Amino acid sequence: MTAFKNLPAAPIAPQRPVSDTHHGTTRSDPYSWLRDANWQAMFKDPSLLDADIRAHLEAENAYVSAAMADTEELQKTLFREMRGRIKEDDSSVPAPDGPWCYGIRYVSGGEHPISFRLPREGGKEEILLDGDREARDAAYFRLAGSSHAPDHRHLAWAYDDKGSEFFTLKVRNLESGADLDDLVENTGGGGAWTADSGGFFYTAVDENHRPAHIYYHRLGTPQSQDRLVREESDPGFFMGVAESRLHDYIFIAINDHETSEWWTVPADAPEKAPRLVAERRSGVEYSLTEGGDVFYILTNVDGAKDFKIMQAPVGAPEPDNWTEVVAHKPGRLILSISAYADHLVWMERENGLPRIIVRQRSTGAEHAIAFDEEAYSLGFQGSMEYDTETVRFTYSSMTTPSQLFEYNMRTRERHLLKETEIPSGHNPEDYVTRRIIAPAHDGESVPVTLLYRRDTPLDGSAPCLLYGYGAYGIAIPAAFNSNCLSLVDRGFIYAIAHIRGGKEKGFAWYEAGKRAHKRNTFHDFISAAEALVAAGLTRHDRIIAEGGSAGGMLMGAVANMAPGAFGGIIAAVPFVDVLSTMLDDSLPLTPPEWPEWGNPAASEQDYQMIASYSPYDNVTRQAYPPILALGGLTDPRVTYWEPAKWIARLRECSTSGEPMLLKTNMAAGHGGAAGRFQRLEEIAFEYAFALKVVGRA
């Protein structure tokens, strides 16, 4: 029985069918008109949105407001709770770099970070960048981070004020506090400084929002005089740029989802042509880390599916000179590497749990930093400095707030620098975290991490929020999330399904959930729901499924495949119009996504495979649970029309009488609101929907 009563009539999108034919198959799309023909210009200027489309999105927003009107006080309560768990005047522990220590902090009531520094030997704080001041009067504002020059006199910083991820880059004089006249627009955000601090390299995005060019900008010159360093002609590859820890090299990285190519430029000779390290070979990935006179190379070359570590002289980094440092071990996935004067450090994951390995470079002796909890998360922060014995890492679990440690790689001493404070109070002993194993449809074992209050009845009556992602090899960590406590404290079980498509169980776990094997991802999530019910923890009508972006595609797929397995579904910026998007190479992410999903324009097999699960194309006349979809008008990753079309088709086909709700943020993109408290309002809305569906609003 629906929890939604006395709703007004839902908006009905007019049907204006448009047909397309590929590989002899013709399909009709009645809602393709919801895609603005002028979408590229609209992303930069949302006022250009077609009037009919705007009217429909605003009608959808009015409908969802009416459907959720009785939860307004609950939303406010949830927001206050979540805000109460955030230390409003929080500050990072400043990290040393040369004569300074750099950090960020927030002020009470502030939405955006303030960058600051302190003299290393002690002294007065200097504010470098006040995010709240820069964001004033902006409907949307997001800082893309900042980087100080090697001589500590300038700061390159970038911002997006549309949500469309076209970042503007500015340069601040840290002695005067004023921005220079230098203004670099349409960047990917951030810059890589040259050794003399006189300029920086940056990524520029093209008219299709693809980072396809690397430029060099000399301070004091207009953007029109910036020198093109390298460009990428293949729309399937994106470019990025970074500087090495020693400020000796600029790295230009070119990648799709399964192939890499790196180039180097001496940071003290920015005019030199980039030098190729290893030409791209389909399916071969590698990345560089500088280690003094060598480059360390993390790579899957020669069948090292879970990656190995190689090294090569910086003066001759070609593959013929690569030698093995850490061998490949199947099932032990090496995630990242960092090099310091005396130590090599890498993050790895085995049996679903992360650990940090420290190796002394001169002797090869190594040891692990690991923890004993059943499920936990590690993050390696390292150090901004190369000649150091100390690095930093973070630890948390579903019950334990994040802790920042300083670790001496030589003595193995561990020092707690900071523990995330929960101002409203938090007792880890009140909660239980554990893992269950869900048997998959094909005999695989899917880990599911659970969090619940110790006093939650485990008799099937508890509601459950089941979260999943399962794409791009991204592993969802069992990390502390203070927001979900607002559900857990109301009797929810919070569950994360570690499904195929991520790398929780190694690279093979990722491969088994991509392209031709994509349906495993969806089956795994359904199996996780079934396992929760089989264990007597909850019931199907008490499970709220949640996922965003590629996880939103997961939501759309399981809604079609097993609508009765879930009491409700939350799909944030959901990638649900997969077939149409993968056929359209003008969209920003389409060519780079072909290795992940397949290329339906070039391959009939890929076309039929994607068509078999694409959520929008597989909506049928059946009883769907209540569904909440959330989109962002200027989202370049998952365009607003995907959830808009999907909800229109669901509303047309569903026989359950349950509402299909669409909420579009008309002033934001993929990540929703950028401010730390503004984002909490959106989470409170999603949680209020979950509570309403299970009768606990």
Automatic annotation (TrEMBL):
It holds the Pfam family Peptidase_S9_N. Transmembrane segments: none annotated. The keyword Hydrolase applies. Keywords: Hydrolase. Residues 1-29 are annotated as: Disordered. Signal peptide: none annotated. Belongs to the peptidase S9A family. It comes from Pseudohoeflea coraliihabitans. This is S9 family peptidase. Residues 480-695 form the Peptidase S9 prolyl oligopeptidase catalytic domain. Residues 15-419 form the Peptidase S9A N-terminal domain.
